[in-house]
Amino acid sequence: MKLFDKLAGTTACAALMFSALPSFAEGELNILTWEGYADPSFIEPFEAATGCSVSATYVGSNDDFAPKLAAGGGVFDLVSPSIDSTAPLIAAGFVQPIDTARIDEWNSIYEKFRTSDGINQDGEVYGVPYAWGAIAFMYRADKFDTPPTTLDALWDPALEGRISLWDDKSALYVAARANGDMDIYNLTDEQIASAQEKLIAQRPLVRKYWSSAGELVDLYKSGEVWISNTWAGYQSALLAEEGIEVVEFIPEENAEGWMDSFMIVSGTPNEECAYQFLNMAVSEVGQCGVANVNGYSVANPEAARRCMSEEQFAALHQDDPEYLDSLLLWENLGDRLGDYTNAWNAVKAQ
Amino acid sequence: MTAGVVKRARLRQFLVLSPPLLWTVLFMFVPYAILVVYSFWRAQFPLAVPDFQFGNYIEIFTDPQYLNVLLRTAKIAGLVSLLSLLLAFPYAYFLVFKVRKPGLRLTLYMAVVAPLWVSYLLRAYTWKTILGTEGLLNSFLMSTGILSEPSSVFLYNQTAMIITLTYVFIPFMVMPIYAALEKIPPSLIEASGDLGEGALATLAKITIPLAMPGIVAGFTMTFCLSFGDFISPILVGGPDGLMIANVIAAQFGAALNWPLGSALALVMLVIVLGIITASDRFERLGQARLS
């Protein structure tokens, strides 16, 4: 029976370990978020001021949020999905309503974001808008005599092997606009099919579909790619640090816009710390923090005005609500998600 | 023996076996059972609803994209295995029959096996820096004057994937072939020579048939490992590099279609199990013929 004793001992040990865990997690926020959203430059002061310690796990894409939360385990307290990926989290009950009265600067946040469908459901608010930007396009300044202004450049045979596109359903949005279908979040089956055709026609020209910010930077750095779409402000700044000059542009066919909000995971034991974090995030500390680290525009223009220079404020379009309104802000595709992702997979499977 | 003693012996046997049994049940059978159950469910916003229907399987066999990707994956895995075999067999043969010093033999053997201790990700990534437009290969070809300007044909295509996977999985081909060749008694080869057979005939009639179990094992391993790979398409594959494992990953992530992903995973599992069974049969057949 020695083995049994040993087994029983191990089990008891494991049980002790697990029961001891929650007491260590007291006041510790686990955040599932994008790189830069928990940068030490503003997280360390937050930890010092509140006593809430923060540990961040980074996602590579919006596709990571729902599966990680669906796997359960009560690991995360806060998540920061983009506006098109919030609906499944709300519908599945993974995130809980937010008491906006506890967010001091709630009313300073762009109304467009506060009232957006992505974070509002049945009269409850589920997210605190944090940062936003465009899915702009960019090209290497030294490779183009005449700057591209339309999406045609991404279908230009002269650029064969120099084109890259984000490995995301967003590729269908791009192709649909190139086809002249501007209602990109409500495409009909025929429009999705022709966007798929358009992407299949483009594929021989594509060097590589990029799947992470770092990969796109590498592709430009190693001379593989000259033109692509991009998360405006982010990769171009990383490339500038590497001494590679790229120019961002919004094509005549327009660009998508994205917006990330922080959401509280249902049943978090660290709600107090979570609210403190949300307040920090939409204050000058968090807003200029993300603007400086990632080069993104921010959700609270009043905080931005207090902590940004005139130039930065203008460069991030914080002074220009029309720019924000002009972007095709991402929407959740609901039951149509399968049709979009299926079409995109079919392009790559061809 | 009394019944009590038998019972106690059984209990002891059960207790000795129980940890591996528990492990197998908990981490193999339960997950597979969950996968099977999920594969009959229906994807519905936000995630999936329980159901019993064959829609996911029907979709896999009617939508040409899945067959396309399966065929492409099999093609790449087949080419990787073939290339590995063509490289690994002469190498193992050289080690076993030509290298006389045991120390040198061990060094050369370890040279192939040692990379297994380096992260697979790192080894695959290295090929990016070798094959890229401004990579080592292009720099070399340009400095020797073979190319006048860098070529982009080496990276981000299926060839790059095959090269990378061959490099990564070749130890799994060398090891079993080496083991099989080492077991061949030199007397058999000498006898073949004494009876007047040339070196090539000896290779074809004696060495290769006797090494067949190692070849089949190596081929099966490299094929199955390449078949399930999803890193090389991401790192060095081009726009036409999607493999079946990437499609499965996309179903669990981007598409939020776990039922279809589960069905795809099971189809892949059946294919791999089929290959392993076939190779097992083939191996036994060879052994029966030789004896």
From TrEMBL, chain A:
Q: Which InterPro entries match?
A: SBP (IPR006059), Sperm_putr-bd (IPR001188)
- According to the record, the signal peptide region is 1-25
Domain of life, per the record?
Answer: Bacteria
The terms describing its cellular component in GO are: periplasmic space
Q: Which GO terms describe its biological process?
A: polyamine transport
Alphabetic keyword roster: Periplasm, Signal, Transport
Where is it localised? Periplasm
Q: Name one GO molecular function term.
A: polyamine binding
Mention any Pfam family matching this sequence.
SBP_bac_8
Record protein name field:
ABC transporter
Q: Which organism is it from?
A: Litoreibacter roseus
From TrEMBL, chain B:
Q: Which GO terms describe its biological process?
A: transmembrane transport
Residues annotated as coiled-coil are none
Q: Which PROSITE patterns match?
A: ABC_TM1
* SUPFAM superfamilies per record: MetI-like
What are the subcellular locations of this protein?
Cell membrane
- Annotated keywords: Cell membrane, Membrane, Transmembrane, Transmembrane helix, Transport
Report membrane topology.
Answer: Multi-pass membrane protein
Any single Gene Ontology cellular-component annotation: plasma membrane
Please name the CDD domains in this protein's record. Answer: TM_PBP2
**ABC transmembrane type-1 domain boundaries:** 70-279
Pfam families named among the record's database cross-references: BPD_transp_1
InterPro entries named among the record's database cross-references: MetI-like, MetI-like_sf
Task: Report the transmembrane regions from the record.
Answer: 21-41, 76-96, 108-127, 160-181, 215-236, 256-279
Q: Which family does it belong to?
A: Belongs to the binding-protein-dependent transport system permease family. CysTW subfamily.
Q: What is this protein called?
A: Spermidine/putrescine ABC transporter permease
- Naturally occurring in which organism (per UniProt): Litoreibacter roseus
Taxonomic lineage from the root: Bacteria, Pseudomonadati, Pseudomonadota, Alphaproteobacteria, Rhodobacterales
